[in-house]
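notes to self, project folder thing:

trying the whole complex as one job this time. last attempt i did each chain seperately and stitching them together was a nightmare. two parts in total, labels are on each line so i dont mix them up again. if this works i'll redo the older ones the same way
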Amino acid sequence: MTMTLTPPETRERTAPSLRTRRLPKAAVGALHGLAVLLAVAWIVGPADARAGLLAVVLAGIVPLWSRIVEGRRKAKDRLVTLLVTTAFGIALIPLGSIVWTVLEKGVPVLSREFFTYSMRNVVGEGGGIHHAITGTLLITLGATVISVPIGLFTAIYVVEYGDGTRLAGALRFLVDVMTGIPSIVAGLFAYALFVVIFGDGVRMGIGGAVALSVLMVPVVVRSCEEMLKLVPTELREASYALGVPQWRTIVKVVLPTALAGIVTGVTLAIARVIGETAPLLVIAGATDSVNFNLFDGRMATLPVFTYTSIIQPGVPPEPAIARAWGAALVLLLIVMLLNLIARLVSHVFSPAGER
Amino acid sequence: MATSIDVSDLNIYYDDFLAVEGVNISIPARAVTAFIGPSGCGKSTFLRSLNRMHEAIRGARVEGKVLVDGEDLYGRGIDPVDVRRRIGMVFQRPNPFPTMSIAQNVLAGRRLNGERLKKAEADAVVEQALRRAGLWAEVKDRLDRPGSSLSGGQQQRLCIARAIAVEPDVLLMDEPCSALDPISTSVIEDLIHELKAEYTIVIVTHNMQQAARVSDQTAFFNLAGVGRPGRLVELGPTEKMFANPDDPATEAYIQGRFG
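result (full assembly):
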């Protein structure tokens, strides 16, 4: 073995280290914190646009720095995280602003009187929104009673009976079209309908409920449809294999399994329509008195009350405008409450194994 | 309750697609018949046509005759719902109802059909069905726990208990052990041995050893060719099918040369 072998060409491969250099956490945190602080200062007021610009620069330093120290992949990760978080922050600005303003101007108005008095014979200070709260609750309840059966049954037809048929396809399309109906059109539809029955100038709470249900039905159909689709086919087959007819399978197996989602969907649909103003202005009208009868006469609602208080505040205008903020706050609280209830309900009703 | 099934010239379609062609088979009462064959050869489709379950799929239809105790399942005026009450089915994946407890799952077939059971009767039905499914000892202390809290093998036995609580004459099983581990599988195979004293059992399986272990009669299904419908190739007593089959394709499949 004297022959010298040419050594096989081995490519020098240094095992890549799994440890990489990282940016110091404290420095990154400080940069981000400072940027957020400056941005907030700019939006809220004390600083001008230069602070905003500085915030962008400060936040932008981190990915560049990371490119040098940590490499390309980490830098990309930091950049995208930054963009996504910023987008989320921007989306939160209107919400934060609305909640803050409504709280600031609405809270001082809230009092025992505000919730228990109507506006009947009130001029200037005092009075309350009892009539508007009753009206909103009654009309929304009416809309729910009308649209839940219609929406749920439509969804059951589309998913359980008509799946794949032309009629179901057409229904789906029409529901999508219905989702886009402007709310004022829904109000005019309800008004036209009630004029045909009761004559010109009709104003009724139930008309408002009809208008709102026009807006609510497509939302209910859509959410129920999605929830019914989530029920596995295997459960339906298991039920059929026990000799259970289709309608009993739907009532006893499919609906209970989808119940949590359906209730959540309905609650969110309610939250969606409870703040509608235009249709109620057209058909339910405005009044200063409490009206418990959906089928007789004008009915005040929170959104319409807010609107009219701002548009026709009377003299002096301040108390009416303050009451409008109060009403807006109460409406906001009701919507938040509904969302909370939806979460609670979906937790309580979800199938025992999946909690 | 000795129910035998005679199938003659059965063609099964999905819309215009012929999935299974010209099946003639006789399934004896109180015995286990196993269907074996490669994937996509129509075993499961054929099994589902035996209790009209395939109609749950839109566009599926059948030509030919399925005689159960001399009555044609596909004859005029036959209600598929009644057919399924007599011919129960257990599926590939355990599928207990998630909204119901163990006891409610067992009673589901009775309750969902609108039957009102007194508490004592219901308890008796639950205990009997769970005992026959070999699950009673394991769950008797937690009957009101959700069915989904059980392990996979237990869930499958729960599904068997649910199927036999309706007191069918025939039990169809579509790969009942394919999602289970060997121990749960052997428990269910023992169960099949016990159940065949009272029921006519048809089982689809991909596991040839399982077919050899549990069945009295074996049917081999195969595709007539690529894109051609599935058909019944050979039917015979299990011992003969595994020792000395007539058809070369059967022999090749059983020896593991394809499939």
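what i see at first glance: The mean pLDDT of chain A is 89.
need to look closer tmrw
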